[in-house]
Specification:
Blueprint lengths: L1 H4 L9 E4 L3 H4 L5 H6 L6 E4 L1 H15 L1 H18 L2 H15 L6 H8 L12 H11 L1 H14 L3 H10 L2 H24 L6 H21 L1 H10 L14 H26 L3 H5 L22 H11 L6 H25 L4 H4 L12 H11 L1 H7 L1 H12 L5 H13 L9 H13 L7 H43 L26 H12 L25
Parallel strand pairs: 1-2
Length: 544
């Protein structure tokens, strides 16, 4: 209905990127299936970021004790998050363990937040929490032991029993070695522009890293070093027996193999069609004198022809596939010329991560579309595929990044933020520029805003002064016109007379005090309407 209301032609849909939920990708009545009934050539792309997160989650489910460790990590976060006293104790232990000189409370607060919350819906949260537990394992267990001895805290006793054992420590070291490789891959896929040619190599590199971790037994070597004499964990009474070493070796192999299998299963279905678009990258085209130039891109063109001409059968399919291959062989010479015309800022994009940079592949595709009148005559089939490539999404991380930006900007204390201001702040938060890059713009905006602020303050002050006599006169008139038999008495028998004459008219505060005294009202000792920064005041204890 919304597509029809927007007057969008559904037959021209080229791609759909979703998070992979059943509503979007269901085999019978999913959104993608319903759209493909009207557009047979539409590519349904499961977001590569969500796919990677699901592959990691499936691997964790394959190893039972890793699920136990995830539960313990969440309990650790809850234990410190719900008590400022515990957080302060943990901060002191971390400072003492690291021999740090903390200058202010802000630094202590940062240290105390090393125990992060691990959440499956946040792709990098488990890596952050494991890193915190790995770096501060000694002060963490010292804090739990302190609450066990001094307060006999049952939660601290249980958490201490769960953490101070070789099995838990082995899994922490395993995850601390493996998760950074997966986090780097996830961050690469979350970029604003993802090159089709970079997807498969990035996955292959990560798989090789996982194989290397298992072959070299990196978690075990690191744990042996830290538990040995003079090691970082030598003060903890944890022994690494031969059984524990064998357990960690087997766990490393099992976990890395599970990760590789799940990543291959999640990416194997749609990667060939997506990776085939890499042939439009001009930087990858070999020189004309190279022997590989003749066959460059032919295999990828066959993959694209199999997808886009799947509705054609028999001779028609073969004819279009051959025509597309002929167009590609001619276009390779155009790519060689465009390769020398790529602007410098495209080949060497800015390092600012918030600025969207155009890739060489996108630049070539836009060049084709800008010369559509020329290519539609000589290479119509290839132009159609280029249109699909330039509009095809491979990730829906950008809209989710926008949702996170709204949460950061429109907080509880800024709930009345207008939509136009919120939109402007979101543009700056997501797309930049950074503060260091726009000093002149900020200075100009402040100079323009200051005079208006002074005018508004002056107008507000005049408005308050003008309203004060009117308010005083109203109170005085009300007291004078009140019937004598219903007038409030001050000391039981004597009525209040002439109260209005004592009310000040110069200052609103004096006026209010005079009215309170005249009406014999009790003194106001507190302000119940003030907004509090305490999260418990809005029902955090009820998980609101």
């Amino acid at each position: 209905m919304q597509l029809a209301a927007a007057e969008l032609d559904k037959t021209k849909l080229t791609g759909l990127a979703t998070d992979g939920c059943s509503v979007m990708t269901g085999k019978r009545n999913g959104v993608a299936v319903q759209l493909r009934r009207e557009c047979k050539l539409m590519l349904n792309v499961h977001c590569i970021c969500h796919r990677l997160a699901l592959a990691c989650g499936d691997a964790n489910d394959d190893v039972n004790y890793i699920k136990v460790v995830e539960k313990v990590l969440r309990q650790l976060w809850t234990f410190f998050k719900n008590s400022a006293k515990r957080s302060a104790t943990y901060a002191k232990a971390a400072v003492a363990a690291k021999a740090l000189v903390v200058q202010n409370d802000k630094s202590k607060k940062v240290i105390a937040k090393k125990v992060k919350k691990a959440c499956k819906t946040r792709w990098l949260s488990t890596d952050l929490e494991i890193r915190g537990v790995f770096e501060d394992f000694v002060p963490l267990t010292q804090t739990l032991g302190l609450y066990k001895e001094l307060e006999n805290d049952s939660t601290a006793i249980g958490l201490l029993k769960q953490t101070v054992n070789i099995q838990f420590l082995s899994v922490v070291y395993l995850l601390h070695t493996v998760l950074p490789a997966l986090s780097r891959l996830s961050k690469a896929f979350q970029r604003e522009t993802v090159s089709f040619s970079a997807i498969q190599p990035a996955i292959d590199y990560t798989l090789d890293q996982l194989a290397e971790i298992a072959a070299e037994e990196k978690p075990l070597r690191k744990l042996q070093k830290n538990l040995g004499e003079g090691g970082r964990l030598a003060t903890r009474e944890i022994s690494l027996t031969a059984t524990a070493e064998s357990y960690l070796e087997n766990l490393t192999v099992k976990y890395t193999d599970s990760l590789k299998d799940n990543i291959n299963n999640r990416f194997s279905e749609s990667l060939p069609a997506l990776s085939a678009f890499k042939i439009f990258d001009p930087s990858a085209v070999p020189n004309r004198s190279d022997l590989s130039f003749k066959h460059y891109g032919v295999a990828e063109i066959e993959i694209l022809a199999a997808h886009f001409y799947q509705e054609e059968v028999g001779a028609d399919h073969q004819e279009k596939a051959e025509e597309l291959e002929c167009e590609w062989k001619k276009f390779k010479y155009n790519l060689l010329q465009l390769k020398n015309e790529i602007p410098h800022h495209i080949l060497h994009p800015p390092k600012n991560r918030n600025l969207v940079s155009t890739t060489p592949t996108e630049w070539v595709l836009h060049q084709m579309l800008s010369q559509r009148a020329t290519y539609v005559q000589s290479m119509p089939l290839l132009l159609q595929i280029a249109e699909v490539c330039v509009t095809l999404p491979v990730s829906n991380a950008w809209p989710e990044r926008g949702a996170s930006a709204i949460k950061r900007l429109k907080t509880r204390l800024r709930s009345t933020l207008k939509n136009d201001m919120l939109e402007a702040l979101m543009q700056v938060s997501i797309n930049g520029p950074e503060i260091d890059d726009c000093g002149s713009l900020i200075e100009a905006a402040v100079k323009k805003w200051l005079p208006k602020r002074k005018k508004l303050a002056k107008a507000k002050k005049e408005l308050v002064v003008n309203k004060a006599p009117t308010s005083a006169a109203f109170v005085q008139e009300s007291l004078v016109e009140e019937p004598e038999d219903t007038r409030v008495s001050h000391s039981g028998d004597e009525p209040i007379t002439g109260a209005g004459s004592d009310i000040g008219t110069g200052c609103p505060e004096n006026e209010i005090d005079s009215v309170v005294a005249a009406l014999n009202l009790p003194e106001q000792k507190g302000d119940s309407d003030c907004d509090s920064d305490n999260d418990l005041s809005i029902g955090e204890s009820d998980n609101v």
